[in-house]
Amino acid sequence: MSVRPSLTSLGLLAGVILLGACSTGEASRPDPSEPAILAPQEVVVRARDFLFEAPDTVFSGTTTFRLINDGPEFHHIQLVRLEDGRTLDDLMRHLAERNPWPAWALEVGGPNTPGIPGEETNGTLELQPGSYALLCVIPSPDGTPHIMKGMVRPLTVITAAGPTAPLPRADVVMVLDDYSFETDRPITAGRRTIRVENTAAQPHEVVFAKLEPGKTAMDFLKFMENPQGPPPGKLVGGTSGFAHGVANVVTIDFEPGEYALLCFIPDAGDGAPHFMHGMVDQITVR
Ligand SMILES: [Cu+2]
Predict the structure, then answer these.
(1) Cβ atoms of 195 and 126 closer than 8 Å
(2) Residues with CB under 5 A from ligand 1 (ion)
(3) How many angstroms separate the alpha carbon of residue 10 from the centre of ligand 1?
(4) Are 5 and 266 in contact (CB under 8 A)?
(5) Rounded mean pLDDT, 160-188
(6) From ligand 1's centre to the CA of 203, what distance in Å?
(7) 137, 6 in Cβ contact below 8 A?
(8) Cα(129) to centroid(ligand 1), Å
(9) Which of 4-8, 68-72, 143-147 has the lowest mean pLDDT?
(10) Ligand 1 midpoint to CA 265 (Å)
């Protein structure tokens, strides 16, 4: 089946810091005159070859997905919002008939794969009430995307009763475009929260890989194509593909060193992964 660009993407991502609830230590009564400190809803998803363990229904509003990968293959959550009353069955039928990716399945991101099975990544985004699907479009070594091995799961989002949290405050804002990653300031060592936006018409993602000393982003890409010898880097987090107008917030523990930034989304024009169009970058974290 012809899975469109983001379906052959390899996404990745890491931990998100939540707004912690304020603890007074005393059994004090909430003061209605003070605004409540709201934390995002947290949804834990476990992935393994080849399925998701996840709730069927969650509330709308700001939601942190924590993805734990039990492996052994890499797995991410490519979240899509199904519009116009469409269902996951509709999407799978549409793709099985080799149609192009439908406009009614909007990519909204989600955490990309933890670097090593057993590790965890996070991604925070705003969910609107409606019908969603969790997909894993990372390919197996045999080239078959996991979505074709049954790694799909529906998710129903119902309206939250009260107010919901804002997106977590970001240390750095990153803007994705055709075909670039721009940040408003350098990413420094430590646990950093990054708000990622997409200003392009087509979906993009950002995948972070911590490079081994002396290795480059190109070394990492070559290894992904043909894994031989010791890995030149390690996937540490990022977003899955998301459309224009969507924001994802990710938190990653950055160590000093070199990092590769990668987008694997297939191009809307020629189908080549975006890194082939130059959407690959290397940054130094100090
Ligand atoms: Cu891209």
Answers:
(1) no
(2) 204, 263, 265, 274, 279
(3) 11
(4) yes
(5) 96
(6) 6
(7) yes
(8) 27
(9) 4-8
(10) 5
| Angle, vertex CA 270, rays to CA 200 and CA 12, nearest 5 | 60
Strand locations in the chain (E):
41-48, 51-53, 57-59, 61-71, 78-82, 105-109, 120-127, 130-135, 152-158, 172-177, 180-183, 190-198, 207-211, 233-238, 247-254, 257-262, 280-285
Tens of pLDDT, residues 57-76: 999 999 999 999 998 999 99
pLDDT of residue 3: 40
> Percent of the chain, pLDDT > 90?
78
Pairing assessment for the beta strands 130-135 and 41-48 based on DSSP bridges: unpaired
Q: Which residue shows structure tokens 């087509």?
A: 202
**What is the C-alpha to C-alpha distance for residues 253 and 16, in angstroms, rounded to an integer?**
9
Cα–Cα distances in Å, from 57 out to 13, 68, 129, 263?
A: 23, 19, 10, 30
- State yes or no: pLDDT of 268 exceeds 80: yes
Question: Residue 114 and residue 199: Cα distance in Å, rounded?
Answer: 26
- Per-residue pLDDT for 7 more than 50? no
